[in-house]
Specification:
- The protein is of the alpha+beta class.
- It has 7 helices and 16 strands.
Length: 306
């Protein structure tokens, strides 16, 4: 079949599956959006991204608050918090409410354990500029990340996220049927060869061999089905001829570029983003050179995609 299809630009309306439970473009498979009682939530788009007000990330979370924040994370995929004057240790403590922490083996941590520091300036320009899901080259990619901006440029430096559940829902039916059940290979080298020494990468190939993940992942908590391929780390689809694999992946990679599936966040100092790495891709916009942009990120260990 041909997969050179146009990108769909309109969100698929809610539909009723066989079990009779309404399934919309944002809500969980077996639940519906309900009000939040422990904080205020302001959506930043129809399917992804919401700003939370009334939560101090430097204070311990109660079980009820953690549960309600998790419900918001599953529904909105990325949560934003303003004016959080917290320390690296408090950022770590907040992230640990969702599980053990991990670090990216190819990005050094700063002075604080398990905190990765990104400091961009005229001496160290940014180089992100690619849609990706973090560390999918691992057998168990990260559950999520908590990113805090410490120094923000006078303009630019936004981050964008794309909802890969909405992207999957809005694929043509024949494409969804084609990719369900397929697996793809993920490798760290394509994502890091642009800015890493080749000898350094070669030395880590035995430690991080290529892995296979499903092209369509089922979210372990919400039950939503989501595209789980990304341009940074996915190299090919297992069992397809290379030309067909490349053509199909080009189509699937393009879905992250659809504005209707995205949210774009303008940072201020002490703003925090908490995103579900299982359900999203993100893109750090590199449009602020030569100004400084300093951020710290904490990543939460995940599970094996299925």
């Amino acid at each position: 079949m041909s997969v050179d299809l146009p990108i769909r630009a309109a969100l698929r309306p809610a539909r009723v599956p066989a079990d009779g439970i309404l399934e919309g473009p944002r809500v969980l498979n077996r639940g519906e959006s309900r009000p939040y009682s422990l904080f205020s939530l302001t959506p930043l788009g129809p399917v992804i991204g919401a700003e939370i007000d009334g939560v101090d990330l430097g204070a311990p979370l109660t079980a009820d608050l953690r549960a309600e924040l998790n419900r918001a994370l599953l529904e909105w995929k990325v949560l934003f918090f303003r004016d959080q004057d917290i320390t690296s240790a408090q950022q770590r403590d907040f992230a640990r409410n969702w599980g053990p922490l991990e670090t990216n083996p190819f990005i050094p941590t700063g002075d604080s354990e398990q905190v990765t520091r990104f400091a961009r300036s005229s001496a160290m320009p940014g180089f992100e500029n690619i849609w990706h899901t973090d560390v999918t080259f691992r057998p168990e990619p990260a559950l999520g990340s908590v990113l805090r901006l410490i120094e923000v440029p006078p303009f630019g430096g936004d981050t964008m996220w794309a909802d890969m559940a909405a992207a999957y829902d809005n694929l043509p039916e024949d494409v969804r049927a084609r990719i369900d059940g397929l697996t793809a290979v993920h490798d760290f080298i394509p994502g890091f060869e642009r800015f890493s020494d080749l000898d350094f990468l070669a030395a880590h190939q035995e430690q991080f061999p290529p892995v296979e993940h499903p092209v369509v992942r089922t979210h372990p908590e919400s039950g939503r089905r989501m595209l789980f391929v990304n341009q940074a780390f996915t190299t090919h689809i297992v069992g397809l001829e290379r030309e067909e694999s490349d053509r199909l992946l080009r189509l699937l990679f393009q879905q992250a570029h659809v504005p209707e599936f995205q949210v774009r966040f303008r940072w201020r100092p002490n703003s925090v983003a908490f995103w579900d790495n299982r359900a999203t891709q993100h893109y750090a916009v590199n449009d602020y050179f030569p100004h400084a942009r300093v951020a710290e990120r904490v990543a939460i260990a995940g599970d094996r995609p299925f």
